[in-house]
Amino acid sequence: MRFKNILSIIITASLLWSCNDKTKNKNKDNFDVSTILTNVGDNIITPQYSELNSSITVMKNDFNEFNGSPDATNLTKLQNSFKTAYSDWQSCSFVNFGNTNITTLRNVFNTYPTDTGNVNSTFTVTDFNLESASYADAIGFPALDYILFQGTESEIINRLSGEANNFVQKNIDLMSTKSMAAFDFWNTSDDDYSTSFKDDNKKANGSGFSDFVNGYIQDVEILKNGQLGYPAGKFELGTPKPNQSEALFSNYSLELFKAHLTNLENTYKGKNQFGTDGVGFDDYLNELGTERDGKDLNELILGVFTSLQTKCGLLSGSMNDAIANQTNTTDEIYIKIKELVAYLKVDMTNAVGVQITYIDNDGD
Fold first, then answer.
1. Which residues contact 247 (CB under 8 A, 6 or more apart)?
2. Per the domain annotation, does 359 fall within a domain?
3. Cα separation of 181 and 179, whole Å?
4. What is the DSSP letter of 313?
5. CA distances from 20 to 33, 256, 286, 292 (A)
6. What's the rounded Cα separation, in Å, for the pair 321 and 25?
7. Phi, psi of 23 (to 5 degrees)
8. Which of 3, 138, 150, 300 has the highest CB neighbour number within 10 Å of its CB?
9. CA distances from 117 to 40, 49, 145, 146, 147 (A)
10. What are 205-248's pLDDT values in tens digits?
11. Residue 94 or 10, more confident
12. What is the pLDDT of residue 22?
């Protein structure tokens, strides 16, 4: 999502937390961070990119099947595979380091809200380049969300089989190419980036661990700001902005939020998508014996994740529905994610000796 500039808000919040920072490590830091990176590279990033690539391939095949027989059954099948692929993307969102394709993948896949007028402009032309900057806000999942779900079933079928067909083909092809390239980069990179990433035991700016920590924490801020804060109006004097929501037309935003939260929790713990536990941030903080105001930092973080999962389980409908009808719960969730960001961005980074290098005035 493209956010308005909230840099001053984020800096102020970080400073207020930092001024009260009482984080202490009880033990000397002898932890080998390459053990975390090896687990992340082999068991989280590469398999999740593989799953994303597979789900986009299924979506592409379902689109071709729809073209062969443009009816309600095949439309539903395509809509469902779209939702699966969109959910799988949430597991890859934190990986914004490696090469140019990776660092720009979030922009290609999930810039929202989509510019529907810009999408519609492609319906009357045949020669357009979706990688051009002029289509930056009219591609990826949000654009497909608009075409596949806006209007009645018959309107969608007519649009998809007619004027929007060429755009959808190009958009899915672009996403397929980008996701395959991302998987190949981590799985069989010519410059062997994945090997150097996993073997890197440094923590300086630009190291594999620094990139991972920054990418991960920035992704938590996307959960807070892009998927909840902006549609809830947290930067607009509390006035909800429903049009800022992810998956606006399919109303699939809450499911995406939950999938994103679950992956962030699993990645923190070093768990893969099947729940197999590996080396994660939790192990590092445990070995350091890190405390915040005399309380175990890892337990504080895990407690926030547990609370978030419980509160999210109470929500229903889309994120916009929840914001409108379950305001107290969504407000509590927002406050809890702010707490999580502070624990990670200030306390954890201080404990493990990593600097925050990103500026969060943009988003997913």
1. 86, 141, 142, 145, 253, 256, 318
2. no
3. 5
4. T
5. 27, 34, 22, 10
6. 43
7. -85, 130
8. 138
9. 40, 31, 14, 11, 12
10. 999 999 999 999 999 999 999 999 999 999 999 899 999 999 99
11. 94
12. 77
What is the residue whose two structure tokens read 């699993």?
A: 266
Does some domain include residue 314?
Answer: yes
The 3-state secondary structure of 53-82 reads HHHHHHHHHHHHHHHHCCCHHHHHHHHHHH
Q: Which domain holds residue 268?
A: 7-352
- Give pLDDT tens digits for 271-287: 998 889 999 999 999 99
Number of domains in the chain: 1
Could you tell me if residue 58 is inside a domain?
yes
CATH code assigned at 256: 1.20.1420.20
Exposure b/e, 194-212, CB count within 10 A at least 16 = b: beebbebeebeeebbbbbb
pLDDT at residue 13 above 70? no
- The pLDDT score that the predictor gives to residue 126 is 87
Query: What pLDDT sits at residue 359?
Result: 83
pLDDT band at residue 1 using 50, 70 and 90 as cut-offs: low
Q: From CA 18, how far away is CA 135, in angstroms rounded?
A: 40
Cis bond before residue 113 (omega within 30° of 0)? yes
Report which secondary-structure segment, H or E, holds 309: helix 297-312
Residue at 97 is within a domain: yes
